[in-house]
Specification:
28% of the residues lie in helices and 29% in strands. The protein has helices at residues 12-15, 75-92, 130-134, 136-145, 208-217, 232-239, 252-264, 278-288, 309-325, 344-358; strands spanning 2-5, 20-22, 38-42, 48-54, 60-66, 100-105, 114-119, 122-127, 151-156, 169-175, 182-186, 189-193, 222-226, 244-249, 271-275, 292-297, 327-337, 362-369, 387-393. Bound molecules: S-adenosyl-L-homocysteine (SAH).
């Protein structure tokens, strides 16, 4: 195994078990090692500290597999990590035969670059790093050995693969072939998802606990559900007794799926779907003086990279401002951010600014975060990304 050395003083993050090593911290940053191969990471005194995957195209040059430098990165290693991940989901109670969940969440399950979402026995897999790609066949075979998995489908089409010089790739990897329409049951609600084409791998499991809260909150309310995608919040709100739900999204296929999901759950009226740019639609509603009792704002990642922080923050604030403005007295705003670059204190400040600008006095009555099948690894704060606030106005 090739030994790669950290420059003096650059081992602090590693000693705190953070698995990312950037090229700037390395003595041999340009070593000619094939992408994905396992390297032994040593300090400048040549003492081994960890084993990780070499990623020549990325600034994030090594992702650590294990902080035990003697650990062999072989089939047994991946078998152990996969079983640990599955055993956690079993303990969380989210491993139901007809249900869905995130089975493997990358760094949090100590498998950097590997994401697996499970949909009623079908695993949608993303290999997002050179190391994950290198061990793709082993990981696929091991997944197929799991009793909870009957088929594996690849969705390695996330933009992040470009940073690793990996081409986009999707398709059947093994086991049973994906049926044309796949349904999962979550808290008694049915959701049909498109594993082949849907966003990410098709469904936002990270919002499960948020859907539960919306369901508990929606009774009797006139709900506005912005960035509705395939209607997760819409179904939850109507199941919770919402008086009506207005969904909007810029994707026509997502709204069509939203309509189907509402229908599958027996909701054939009391909702309306609008295909539009939400930013423009909200301004229109503001001009028209429309009001609602519960407004959900769950935009896509508005801060995709560091250079977008200012612009993204302004967009989140703008959404919050109009959201507060459109609330009836005693109404509630549920606003979310899935941008890792935005932490909870900043999101709270931006939301407060939005309320001030709207001239509303508001109190936070609940905080949302990603569901527990997307756990945060304590040593890797970057694994926490989804946050939201439920605020009630006077
Ligand atoms: N709330 C959803 C997840 C939202 S994902 C759920 O419960 O599952 C973000 C959604 O925003 C996507 O469906 C995407 O099509 C939509 N979108 C992105 N930009 C948009 C815009 N400017 N206007 C309207 N919809 C937008």
């Amino acid at each position: 195994m090739t030994r790669i050395h950290l420059l003096p003083g650059r081992e602090k993050a590693l000693l705190r078990h953070h698995p990312w090593i950037f090229e700037g911290a390395l003595k041999e940053k340009n070593a000619s090692i094939p992408a994905g191969e396992t390297v032994l990471v040593c300090n400048h005194r040549d003492e081994p500290l960890a084993v990780g995957a070499w990623s020549p195209a990325s600034q994030l040059r090594i992702r650590v597999w294990s902080f035990d430098p003697d650990r062999a990165i072989d089939r047994e290693f991946f078998r152990d990590r996969i079983s640990q991940a599955i055993s956690l989901r079993r303990k969380l109670g989210v491993l139901q035969p007809d249900g869905g969940c995130r089975l493997i969440y990358s760094e949090s399950d100590r498998l950097p670059g590997v994401i697996v979402d499970l949909y009623a026995g079908f695993a949608a897999v993303q290999f997002l790093s050179a190391g994950a790609e290198f061990h793709r066949d082993t990981i696929t075979q091991l997944l197929l050995e799991q009793p909870c998995i009957c088929g594996v489908f690849e969705r390695s089409d996330a933009a992040i693969r470009k940073k690793e010089s990996l081409a986009s790739r999707t398709g059947h990897l093994g086991g049973s072939a994906l049926p044309d329409s796949l349904r999962i049951v979550e808290d008694g609600l049915i959701f049909e998802t498109d594993l082949r084409e849907g966003q990410k791998t098709g469904f936002y499991f990270d919002l499960r606990s948020a859907r539960q809260k919306i369901r508990q909150t929606a009774n009797g309310k006139k709900v506005l559900n912005m960035f509705s995608y395939t209607g997760g919040f819409a179904c939850a709100a109507l199941a919770g007794g919402a008086k009506s739900v207005l969904n909007a999204d810029s994707s026509a296929p997502a709204l069509e799926q939203c309509r189907k999901n509402l229908e599958l759950n027996g909701f054939t009226e009391n909702y309306e779907n609008i295909c539009a740019d939400v930013f423009q639609l909200l301004r229109q509603f503001e001009r028209d003086g429309r009001t609602f009792d519960l407004i959900i704002l769950d935009p896509p990642k508005l801060i995709p990279n560091k250079s977008a922080v200012m612009r993204g923050c302004r967009a989140y604030q703008d959404l919050a401002r109009i959201g507060f403005k459109l609330l009836n007295p005693g109404g509630m705003l549920a606003n979310f951010s899935c941008s890792g670059a935005m932490d909870m204190p900043l999101f709270q400040k931006i939301t407060a600014d939005g309320a001030l600008q709207a001239g509303r006095n508001a109190r936070i009555i609940h905080r949302f975060e990603q569901s527990p099948d997307h756990p945060t690894l304590l040593t890797v704060p970057e694994t926490f990304y989804l946050k939201g606030l439920l605020s009630i106005v006077d």
